[in-house]
Write a structure and sequence with these properties.
alpha+beta; Glutaredoxin; two-stranded parallel sheet; 3 helices; 4 strands; globular
Length: 93
């Protein structure tokens, strides 16, 4: 949750050069949709949130925990992975 506002700032600042999606992992019974919606609203997140109900994305990107930030280039190659945003996004744009 601490990372989400920083991602939101990057999404606004680089909207013309950056696509952003939050991934919410877990089957329906493990995610409280009401709480999820409240967090999204309370944090003012406007970037899309994708539900990864079958954990396909989680496995594809080998997510070990949260937050996990994965940056892909235009060819869908992973160019950054970390538990926070890089200090500067400029080199990745």
């Amino acid at each position: 949750m601490a990372e989400a506002p920083l991602v939101q700032q990057a999404y606004r600042k680089f909207a013309d050069r950056l696509s952003v999606a939050g991934v919410v992992s877990g089957p329906d019974e493990s995610v409280d949709e009401y709480k999820l919606g409240k967090v999204i609203t309370d944090l003012g997140l406007t970037y899309p949130q994708v539900r990864d109900r079958d954990l396909g994305l989680t496995h594809l990107f080998r997510v070990k925990g949260t937050p996990d930030v994965v940056l892909l280039n235009a060819n869908r190659k992973v160019v950054y992975r970390g538990h926070s945003l890089p200090t500067s996004l400029e080199p990745f744009l």
